[in-house]
Amino acid sequence: MKIYRSEAKVNLFLKITGLRGSYHELMSRFIKVSNLYDDMVFVEERGAFNIHGFGKEVSLNNNIIYKTLQNLIKTLNVKDAKRVDNFFNEHSLSVTKRVPMMAGLGGGSSNSATFLKMVDEVLKLNLSDREKLAIVEPLGSDIAFFLNPLGSANVSGVGEIVEPFEEETPKIDVYTPDISCNTGAVYREYRNNFLKLSDINSVKEWLNKPSKELFSELKIESANDLYPPALSICPKLAEAKKDGYLFSGSGSSFFRVKS
Predict the structure, then answer these.
(1) What's the average model confidence in pLDDT over 84-109?
(2) Does the annotation count 243 as an active-site position?
(3) Environment class of residue 222 by beta-carbon count within 10 Å: exposed (0-12), middle (13-18) or buried (19+)?
(4) What is the DSSP letter of 122?
């Protein structure tokens, strides 16, 4: 069976520009990290579908890959749903995890998008881009980016608007301390104690700048609106911070763009 790469991403900047119910509207530059990825492959295994590689502490029902499978089956016609069921009576999924979890690198979102592409390709479901987006949209705002073969993109809305940014994808150096940042908790801390929406016009000038140039101008405190709330609930991040590095997503990873 073919092995698929499920790459990480970093947020060069992340500015929250509005609220949409319980969701946060943002403007961000996503960059894929080509040298940090999970390997995903289907393996022959009869019986109930299983996901290997996440450890016993992660239940199947709470795994984003399994939720992706459930959402996929709900959208298919009876014939294709039966084909998917039959395939997963004979196969499970093996994941070689390299992308740290709860680290602001989009590992789970990338796994979801990669898994959906795997099923689509292997079973020749011929899902449209719109159908794929509808399947994953309820599961996470970052997944839309990973459905595209993009190295860099400007992302807005609640993550569903993905606009390719034409550049040679920069090389990224990622540093992840032994600290777990819960995304939901960081967003709640932002909304409860750090809510100050960024001005869209002041961020727009960043959207057209090459990532290498922009990285040299940004500061960790102002590039990512989630850094202060993450620091509030994970104070050890202050000790882990490195000079010349920015903060990705809700953390806990720091990164730099290589020159």
Answers:
(1) 96
(2) no
(3) exposed
(4) H
pLDDT digits (tens, 9 = 90+) for 128-153: 999 999 999 999 989 999 999 999 99
CA distance 29 to 164: 10
Catalytic residue among 9, 32, 67, 117: 9
Taking the C-alpha atoms of residue 7 and residue 38, their distance in angstroms, rounded to an integer, is 6
Q: pTM for this structure?
A: 0.94
In angstroms, the CA 91 to CA 49 distance is 7
Long-range CB contact pairs, 255-258, < 8 A, 24+: 255/10, 255/33, 255/172, 255/173, 255/174, 255/175, 256/172, 256/173, 256/215, 257/12, 257/31, 257/170, 257/171, 257/172, 257/173, 257/211, 257/212, 257/215, 258/170, 258/171, 258/172, 258/173
Per-residue pLDDT band at 58 (split at 50, 70, 90): low
Burial state string for 76-111 with b = 16 or more CB within 10 A and e = fewer than 16:
beeebeebbeeebeebbbbbeeebbebbbbbbbbbb
Architecture of the domain spanning 4-257: 2-Layer Sandwich (3.30)
Q: Which residue would you say has higher pLDDT here, 14 or 57? A: 14
Q: What is the pLDDT of residue 61?
A: 83
Least Cα distance to 114 among 36, 39, 33, 9 occurs for 39
Q: What angle do CA 137, 222, 217 make, to 5 degrees?
A: 105
Q: Give the residue carrying structure tokens 């990164």.
A: 255
142 given a catalytic annotation: yes
Catalytic choice (15, 32, 117, 142): 142
Residues 6+ apart with CB under 8 A from 222: none
